[in-house]
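Re: weekly structure request thread

Next one in the queue (153 aa):
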Amino acid sequence: MSAHLARLRAVIGPELIQLPSVSVVLVDEHERLLLVRHTGSPDRWGLPGGAVEIGESPAEAAVREVREEIGVQIDGLRLLDVLGGTDYEVTYSNGDRVAYVTAAYQAVIVDGTPAPDQEEIAELDWFTPTQVPSVQLNRFTRALLTATGHLAN
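Done, posted below.
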């Protein structure tokens, strides 16, 4: 949690707040998608990403979040959509509630081998487009992949 968000939470507690965020759809040369299991919700798969920090552009946040969470450098960042609504609301295990407005990007890995940081990301794996519909995705990721055409309804 950023210092800015920690100060805000100290004032408002776990009340629902709206925050800008980024989500990154990483696709390899075999058209597989990289999905991650976040440490706070290890029973569902999601995408790398997170909050946009003060003074940071969404594109900068996407690059930073991927580097921090899975240790790779990305390139070819392409904005897919900007999404929000009830599917993008999250309640964390500590009770904090967030309504994210997320800039969804697609990119490729250009340096490094993806590995979970074990702080935010517990596990990661690649999935083919035919495997993705049967993966247990979190609601946020299912909505995002559907909206961006990576998952059929």
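The helical segments are 3-12, 58-70, 139-147. The chain is about 20% helix and 35% strand.
Next request, please.
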